[in-house]
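I have a small job for you when you get a moment. Can you supply me with one protein entry, sequence and fold together? It will help me judge whether the discrete encoding reads sensibly. Write everything out right here, beneath this request:
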Amino acid sequence: MRARDLAAPYPTVGLSTSALDAARQLADANLPGLIVVDAAGRPSTILPGTQVLRLAVPKYCQENVALARVIDEAHADEFLRDLADRTVAECLPKPERELAIVGPDATVLEIAALMARTRSPLVAVVDGHTTLGAVTLDALLDRMLAS
């Protein structure tokens, strides 16, 4: 089975998309991440949902769980709303790592290796300048476990 056989339609966002809008897309569709496209609509990287959280949660709470524990729920919800003033570009990890993008002929093992290497829960499947869709970790594991 090849990437083209596993690829399913998948939502995209641009670099200038609001991080809050990206978070809403992730939550509304229960997605592990989003495909980020450039101005020409070509995939440029993958935005894992964890990177959106990383931007929303203050560093002091990430580094010290005891500090996170003392903030009440009402104030914790405010952190997520602060994403409205930020963009997808700000959520991307730095430095840019290997892109989680494969061609339509990539094998299941190639996709799995790329996911593991890039720590990405999804891989975009691209044929030239056309995005065919994406393979999620869930779809990949279903395929691998069915064998």
Observations:
- The chain is about 45% helix and 20% strand.
- The mean pLDDT is 89.
- The first strand starts at residue 12 and ends at 14.
